[in-house]
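Quick log. Single chain, no ligands specified.
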Amino acid sequence: MRIPCCLSVFALGACSSSEPPVPSPVYYGEVDAILAENCVDCHAADEDRLAPFSLAGYDDAVLAAEHTPIAFAVMNRIMPPYYADDSGACRTYHGNRWLTDAQISTLVAWANGAHAAGDPADATPPPPPPPALDGVEAWLDPGADYLPTQSVDDEYRCFVVDPGLAADQFLTGFQVRPGNGSVVHHVIVFALPDAAAEADALGRDAGDLALGYPCPGGPGPASASFLIGWAPGNAAVRFPIGTGIRMLGGRRVVMQVHYNLAESDRRVDRTTVDLALAAAVADEAAILSVRADVDLLPGQPDVAAIGARALPPGAGGRIWGVAMHMHQRGIGGGVRRVVGGDACLLDLVNWSFHWQHLYWFDTPQPVAGGDRLEVTCHYDTSDDRTPVRWGEGTGDEMCLAYVYASQ
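-> predicted structure:
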């Protein structure tokens, strides 16, 4: 079953209370506002949506309330699939679709009640289409259509792509354009730092008769580095003003596409990426990785891996956003900046291998030489009988943080 992109709060048992009854919320002006802000990008009316059902109108929401009992996912913050605690206890983020307790209560009360409509005149306008990316000067295009393998639920396919840069440029934003939105589940672009890494990727590509090559654990070359990532619900991404990541002239990149095929429409895909570039930026940025070694005891409902990376003396700058990466045993995690005391950068209250985001801070976090960045990953190894160790396969595990930092 394809994983839904947002929520419904339905089939939750009513609670008794001695308190005076609270007026039941209505769809128009209350429930529809929450759904429009957090859900309809994926739960759209379009049949080519990623989610398996629509929440784009009153009738759709009622059908979901009556026939889609996934309240557990909402109450446990599995959906919407944005897991950074945005309550302010750690930090606050922009673009993070975090339901407040009040929003959850409103949805639960409406779903448990009579699904009151209210006055259509109070309807929340549909969200406007996201603005397009400005300054696009290059594109990533695999060059042909690709038909995902229909015999599996999930396929990871890598395409070696030439962005056509004659000289170094700075990436300041990007926009992923899925060719088949019903199956494209995430896209990651990896930079290849040298000729050896590029030759490795090209060799893997040449060794497969179909377009691209299989890459379930990553692009293959060990030196390949995370450049950009995208998941459904994200529109055009603009890096903080004045910052950008250097892209090497004359060098190819690898674009990994994760296809979720549980409900495939058997159509081909040709996903492309628009790149906004600048010849120079005020603050050159980079994606720093923080790794924890993984050697997990089996049979544990919660076991952790912890790792750290020290910034070199004299280094200084700002951290603008953080992402994490684990595989299928992940249940949560976090990233901290440690210096004397410590500062929370990211607190993930849940985890899904299928929904991985870069969470952008509302306010950047300063860092200095000697600061330590620490990552903690939590896993459930209850079903394992032998130790779980680091590996690229989805049956193995990883613990990584990716930190977008500028000088």
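Helices lie at 27-38, 58-67, 71-75, 101-112, 195-206.
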